[in-house]
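Aim 2 progress update. The chain analyzed this quarter is reproduced below.
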Amino acid sequence: MGYHVVDPDDLDPEPDRPSEMRYVSEAAGLEHLGLRVYRVDPGEEIPLSGMHYHDEQEEVFYVRSGTLSVETPGDLFRVEPGQFFVAEPGSPHRAHVADDADRQVEVVGMGAPPQSDGHAYEG
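Predicted structure tokens:
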């Protein structure tokens, strides 16, 4: 058995990302779940950048504060604090904070299996 307490503020942000992202799953040694925290300023996206989809990964965003916008081919979702946005495999989406938002958004992102299977959507 293993137990971990991870403070995301103790983790370095990942470089070269369109918003601040910290890998909790790597710090905790998780193998079957990708777990990240994001701080996203107005006009920024949550990685991956642009509309994309995953072959196998189920992706979930939990909004802790602010309002997350998630664009899909047919809709624009506004995800409020305390709400989850779920993207099933094969479902194109782009998570971002609107340019005219008045505050930073804090999001917990989860993906399983934890693999890099994102592809640009050219719908």
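DSSP finds one helix and ten strands in the chain. The beta strands are 20-23, 34-40, 52-54, 58-65, 68-72, 75-79, 84-87, 94-96, 105-112, 118-120. These observations will guide the mutagenesis experiments scheduled for the next reporting period.
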